[in-house]
Q: What sequence folds into this?
């Protein structure tokens, strides 16, 4: 037996640890305790959600971005990225196709593409909700003003994904250009929660210059923010970014973080992400075995998939939506879970 069992038990009961205890969870990480925590995390997910896995249809609708995040393949200054944006008709068609597979959440994700004006984007949200009133709309379009977020909510958007990336101002500045700040990122997340969205935060595991102190701060920040969803995945380098030579995040550490998060937040919506499936072919299945309960199959049209490359080697870029969907349903079923057709809102949320 390793040394961490008392901390893992404490985490399960108290749902948090002190800063130094979070750090110890990493410095003293070992196979036996990891397996002990994994089993607890899986049991916790099953106790709350049974063997149901929620699916979210991901529509990567633009790869234009005004930002220049050092880790990201669609950063503004990557002139090798072939830029595209989908039309309203194309986006609505993705939703129709996804609806046919049983998907009841559509995630509109894109770079911070300022050519979509608030009114047009709100009109798109309204059209999706009109065509599919039983579906949730999730947005993932970055930092905007509170007024803009309010308009999105009024138009009918239900959820918003905005990873905080790292909670430490010092580390944040190593990953982003000076015009982006953790203060504004946190302001956005506060505003979004306050307005009434179900919010998703999160970070990359093993991002360049990340330390266990920084990771501990991420867990502490998440405890305080108490989001409805948490997206994490390993950092994976992209050849046309300044971080091209940086090592990728660790697969085992990512799974370990998922288990910690499941113990901290028994009911949080926790995806097994595409990045996790990219660093290991069975990564998403293992993610579920570590407490994840959400998977996000891509609904993006086949001809743009190879262009939405945040990192090298991204999986599922050569498939049609139908193939992606069938593949994921099979993967979920093979490990004894079932892909469910429901919105999958957080239990504590009602629209205000
Ligand atoms: N590796 C892994 N994840 C990345 N993201 C962006 N670039 C990378 C990368 N190189 C993640 C960020 C962002 C999300 C949409 O994708 O955390 O918030």
A:
């Amino acid at each position: 037996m390793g040394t961490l069992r008392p901390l893992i038990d404490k985490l399960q009961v108290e749902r948090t640890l002190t800063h130094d205890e979070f750090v110890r969870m990493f410095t003293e990480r070992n196979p036996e305790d990891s397996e002990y925590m994994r089993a607890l995390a899986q049991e916790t997910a099953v106790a709350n959600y049974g063997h149901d896995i929620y699916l979210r249809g991901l529509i990567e609708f633009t790869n234009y971005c005004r930002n220049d995040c050092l880790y990201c393949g669609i950063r503004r200054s990557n002139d090798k990225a072939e830029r595209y944006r989908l039309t309203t008709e194309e986006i609505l068609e993705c939703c129709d196709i996804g609806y046919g597979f049983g998907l009841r959440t559509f995630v509109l994700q894109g770079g911070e593409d300022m050519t979509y004006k608030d009114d047009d984007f709100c009109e798109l949200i309204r059209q999706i909700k009109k065509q599919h009133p039983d579906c949730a709309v999730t947005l993932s379009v970055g930092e905007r003003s509170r007024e803009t977020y309010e308009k999105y909510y009024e138009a009918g958007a239900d959820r918003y994904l905005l990873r905080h990336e790292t909670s430490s101002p010092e580390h944040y500045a190593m990953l982003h250009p000076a015009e982006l700040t953790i203060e504004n990122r946190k302001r956005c997340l506060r505003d979004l929660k306050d307005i009434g969205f179900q919010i998703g935060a999160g970070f990359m595991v093993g991002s360049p210059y990340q330390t266990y102190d920084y990771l501990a701060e991420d867990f502490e920040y998440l405890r305080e923010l108490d989001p409805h969803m948490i997206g994490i995945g390993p950092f994976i380098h992209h050849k046309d970014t300044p971080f091209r030579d940086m090592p990728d995040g660790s697969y085992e550490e990512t799974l370990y973080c998922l288990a910690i998060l499941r113990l901290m937040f028994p009911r949080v919506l926790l995806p097994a992400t595409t990045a996790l499936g990219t660093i290991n072919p069975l990564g998403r299945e293992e993610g579920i075995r570590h407490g994840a309960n959400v998977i996000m199959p891509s609904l993006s049209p086949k001809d743009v998939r190879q262009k939405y490359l945040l990192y090298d080697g991204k999986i599922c870029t050569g498939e049609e939506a139908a193939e992606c969907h069938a593949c994921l349903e099979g993967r979920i079923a093979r490990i004894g879970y079932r892909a469910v057709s429901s919105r999958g809102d957080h239990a504590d949320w009602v629209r205000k």
Notes: The mean pLDDT is 98. Residues 71-72, 163, 165, 204, 233, 235-236, 238, 275, 310-311 surround 5'-deoxyadenosine (CB under 6 Å). Residues 5-340 form a domain with the TIM Barrel fold (CATH 3.20.20.70). The beta strands are 52-55, 57-62, 105-110, 136-140, 159-161, 198-205, 229-234, 294-295, 338-340.
